[in-house]
Amino acid sequence: MISPSLFTTARCPECVTALTPQPPGAACPSCHRVFDGSRGYLDLRPIAAFAEQTKYLDDALHIDARHETVAPPLLGSKIRNDRLRAFLALAPGDRVVDLGCGSGRTMIWNRDTGASFTGIDISAFFSKDALDSCDLLLGDLRRLPLADKAFTKAWSLDVLEHLSPQALHDMLSEASRVLADHGVMFVYTHVRKNGPLAVGVRLVNRLADGLERIGLLDLRTERLRKSDHLNPIADHEDLRRVAADAGFDVERITYYTPIIGAFMENILARMVEQRLARRATASAPPTADAGAGIRAARANAKTRLRKRGGVYWATRAVTGLMYLDVLLWGRFTSGPFFARLRKRPRRDR
Ligand SMILES: [Zn+2]
Question: What DSSP assignment string belongs to 87-139?
Answer without folding.
Answer: HH---TT-EEEEET-TTSHHHHHTGGG--EEEEEESS----HHHHHHSEEEE-
